[in-house]
Amino acid sequence: RNFFTKRTKELKPAVQSAPGWKLFGKVPPRENLPKDSKIIQQEYEARTGRMYKPPPPSARRKNIEFEPLSTTALILEDRPANLPAKSVEEALRHRQEYDEMVAEAKKREIKEAHKRKKIMRERFKQEENIASAMVIWVNEILPNWEGMRATRRVRELWWQGLPPSVRGKVWSLAVGNELNITPELYEIFLSRAKERWKSFSETSSENDIEDAGASVADREASLELIKLDISRTFPSLYIFQKGGPYHDLLHSVLGAYTCYRPDVGYVQGMSFIAAVLILNLEEADAFIAFANLLNKPCQLAFFRVDHSMMLKYFAAFEVFFEENLPKLFLHFKSYSLTPDIYLIDWIFTLYSKSLPLDLACRVWDVFCRDGEEFLFRTGLGILRLYEDILLQMDFIHIAQFLTKLPEDITSEKLFSCIAAIQMQNSNKKWAQVFASLMKDNKEGDKNHSPAPKS
C-alpha cells in the first residue's frame, strides 16, 4: 500500500540536488519563484544607486495605464552566474533600450485608445441619428407615405440609411405589390412546393430531376437546387444553414416562389435576396416583396438569363463608366475586361453577397428609392473607390479583386464615391440612355458600341 508514498519521498531529494544539471556544467535551478518585473526594476535601480519611488496613487492612472510585460523587463536582469557579467556600458545600453521599448509601447497604447474612443464616439453618434430618424419615420413619414415619399426632405433622410426597425416596412411600401399577392396565395404555393419536395424524395430519381430541370416548361424541378444553395447563403452568420433558425423559412420562401414562377424557377443568387428580406420582414411579407422585386425589368432580365437585355444593361453601364471614370474605362478596355465579369454577381445578389451585410442593406435602401439605376451607380461607386488600385492591376487580378471585395469597406467611403457618380450622359439620364440603346438595337444601327449617339 505504501509503495507509491515511499517512492515519492525517495525521489524528492534527487530532484532538489539535480545532478543532471552539474554534468553539463550548469547550476541547479533556483528554489525561489520567478521575480516580478517591478521587483527586477527595483533591484536594478537599487544597484545603480537610484532609490525606487513608487508613483503616487493619483498619478497611477489619468487616461492610460501601461504595465510593461515581464518579458519586456528581462533585458534589465543580470546574466546567470555561469555567464560573464554585464559591463557598465552594456547595462546602461540595456536600460536605454528598455526605456525606448516602454516609450514605444506607451505610444501604441495611447494611439489605440484614441482610435477606440473615436470609434465609440462615431457609434454613439450613429445610434443617436438612427433613434431620431426612427421617430421621424414612424410619426411623420409612414402615416403619410404617399404624400411624403417623393419630398426632398424624405429623399435626403432616405439616403442616410433607414433605421433597422422601419427598414422592412419602407422596403415593402417602396417595392409595392403590383402582382397583388396575398398571404393566402403564399400558403397555396408553399403547400405545392412541399408536395413536390415530398414527391421528389419518394419517387423521383436523380436522372428524372435532371430531365425535368432541363425542361423549360417545368422549372419547378429546380426546387432541388434550393437545398444546395441555402447552405452557401451567408455562411458566416450560421443562421440559414441546416439546423439554423432561418433555414426552414428561407427554404419555404424560395420553394413557394419557384412554384409561383415556374417560368423563372430557382436561379443561384436568389437565396441571398430572399435571406435579406427574411431578416427584415415577416415570412409572408418577405415572399410578397421577393416576388415583386424579381418582377422588376432588370431582375427579370437577369434571372431569366435574357442575354439580349443583359447586354443592353451592360452597354448602358459602360456609357456612364466612360463618362465618370475615363482612365479606368480605357484600362479595362485594354484588357478586354467586360462588365459581365463582375456585374453579374453584383446584380444577381443585389450586392448582398459582395458587400458587408449592413452596407448591402444601405444600398438596398436607396435601390428601393431610385430603382435599377442605383444598382449600376453603386457598381460605378465601387470602381471609383478602388480606381487607383485597379489601374495597377492586370486582367486576372482585377477580376479576382472585384469578385471578392475587401471586407473593410465602409459605408461612408462607398456612399461618398457613389454620390460623386453623375448618372447623366450628353444631358441624358439612365432611362433615356437605356431607351436609346433599345431603339438603336431594334433599328440594327448599333451592335457593339455601348454609347448612344448624341
The structural class is mainly alpha
CATH class placement of the domain at 296-454:
Mainly Alpha
Oligomer: single chain
Strand order of the biggest β-sheet:
1-2
What string, H for helix and E for strand, traces the elements in order? HHHHHHHHHHHHHHHHHHHHHHHHEEH
Rg result: 33 Å
Folded structure, characterized:
The protein is built from 25 helices and two strands. By secondary structure, the chain is an all-alpha fold. Among the domains are: 179-291, putative rabgap domain of human tbc1 domain family member 14 like domains (Helicase, Ruva Protein, domain 3, Orthogonal Bundle), CATH 1.10.8; 296-454, Cyclin A, domain 1 (Orthogonal Bundle), CATH 1.10.472. A hairpin with a 2-residue loop joins strand 1 (424-425) and strand 2. The protein starts with a helix and ends in an 11-residue tail after the last helix. This is TBC12 protein. Residues 88-123 form a coiled coil. Residues 161-371 form the Rab-GAP TBC domain. Keywords: Coiled coil.
Please name the defining characteristics of this protein:
about 450 residues; mainly alpha; Helicase, Ruva Protein, domain 3; Cyclin A, domain 1; two-stranded antiparallel ribbon; 2 strands; elongated; Rab_GAP_TBC_domain; Rab-GAP-TBC_dom; TBC12 protein; coiled coil
What topology does this entry show?
Elements: H1 3-17, H2 19-23, H3 37-47, H4 57-60, H5 70-73, H6 88-141, H7 145-148, H8 152-159, H9 164-175, H10 183-202, H11 206-214, H12 223-230, H13 247-260, H14 270-280, H15 283-293, H16 297-303, H17 307-324, H18 326-334, H19 340-348, H20 357-370, H21 372-385, H22 387-390, H23 395-403, H24 411-420, E1 424-425, E2 428-429, H25 430-443
Antiparallel strand pairs: 1-2
Helix pairs in contact: 9-20, 10-13, 12-13, 13-14, 13-15, 14-15, 17-18, 17-25, 20-21, 21-24
